[in-house]
């Protein structure tokens, strides 16, 4: 059993998120997603429109996601990798290089982002409606 993990806010769930999760899941047999809590998002300087509990429900309903856990801190990744016997850590390429330190614990993979879609762009488009 090959376990893959990824993390994110997944606010205003969109096809860029779906494409990331689909490709991450294809790298193994199980995909765990660490969803940033609202408190952690504040630490990240992000404010999500969709509350944490709803974002977790959306992720849990995605066919590519097998398990959802809270992401409360930057530091938890190495503990999660051990706790969940993770083989591969995946992030979109906007994070390229940022998590290379995890390569001592598991494979680290950065995947190209999906072009022309982002939560920020969706928020901007909604703001002018
Ligand atoms: N993503 C993507 N293509 C897009 C938009 C997002 O591939 N058009 C990917 C991002 O690269 C990330 C994942 O989808 O891997 C989730 O994106 P965000 O919710 O924006 O994640 P972020 O807020 O950057 O949180 O500890 C890591 C952080 O929690 C990542």
Automatic annotation (TrEMBL):
Pfam families: CTP_transf_like. GO terms for biological process: teichoic acid biosynthetic process. Residues 5-124 form the Cytidyltransferase-like domain. It is an enzyme of class 2 (transferase). One of its GO terms (cellular component) is cytoplasm. Its EC number is 2.7.7.39. One of its GO terms (molecular function) is metal ion binding. InterPro entries: Archaeal_FAD_synthase, Cyt_trans-like, G3P_cytidylTrfase, Rossmann-like_a/b/a_fold. It comes from the Bacteria. Keywords: Nucleotidyltransferase, Transferase. NCBIfam families: cyt_tran_rel, g3p_cytidyltrns. This is Glycerol-3-phosphate cytidylyltransferase. The gene is tagD.
């Amino acid at each position: 059993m090959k376990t893959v993990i990824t993390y994110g806010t997944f606010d205003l769930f969109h096809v860029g998120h779906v494409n990331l999760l689909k490709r991450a899941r294809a790298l193994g047999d199980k995909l765990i997603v660490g969803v940033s809590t609202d408190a952690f998002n504040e630490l990240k300087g992000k404010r999500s429109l969709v509350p944490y509990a709803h974002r977790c429900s959306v992720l849990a309903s995605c066919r590519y996601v097998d398990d959802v856990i809270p992401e409360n801190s930057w530091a938890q990744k190495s503990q999660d990798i051990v706790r969940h016997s993770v083989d591969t850590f995946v992030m979109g390429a906007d994070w390229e290089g940022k998590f290379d330190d995890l390569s001592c614990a598991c494979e680290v993979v950065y995947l190209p982002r999906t072009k022309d879609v982002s939560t920020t762009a969706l928020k901007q488009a909604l703001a002018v409606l």
